[in-house]
Amino acid sequence: MCSRFLGSSLAGEESDRRGNMDYEIQRCTRHCSTSGRELLPGEPFYSALVAEGAELRRLDYAADAWQAPPENTIGWWKSEIPDPKNRRMHWAPNDVMLQFFDELGGQPDKRAMKYVLSLLLVRRRVMRLEENETDEQGNPLMVLYCPRRDVTYKVPAVVPDQPTAEKIQDELAQLLK
Known about the structure:
Blueprint: E1 2-5, E2 14-15, E3 21-24, E4 44-52, E5 55-62, E6 73-80, H1 94-104, H2 111-123, E7 128-134, E8 140-146, E9 151-156, H3 162-175
Antiparallel strand pairs: 1-3, 2-3, 4-5, 4-6, 7-8, 8-9
Helix pairs in contact: 1-2, 2-3
């Protein structure tokens, strides 16, 4: 998992073209930092990022062991240990998804699909949301940056209703798996 922190000088940082810093943060240890007990699938837990000198350290806690964020915590969150029995969707490689994103650009009837694909690319950290703005007609736009291509995109925020979103997700799953 990678997280973004601005304007810091911690070791292991990588600067992008705007001066933002990227840090590699370790994945969940699946063990409670307090008790050492293994965290089981479906179990809620808390994670904290703690500054230790020039390093960031991730600490995971069972929900029953969590009191409050430890000293020097710069961020914390609650999550759940995934269940390996739940099948995870295996998507196409990022370059294939970006190519499909480009192909959707010239198809006005596919704007909702491009919006949903944009959200997927942001979730996969292929693109990142830089800001939201509006076009000349007052329609919302997402401004997305793709570091892989060093390109900024403006994508109309065409939010589909729930049945349409499910249909788009199914179609994307069939096209991009």
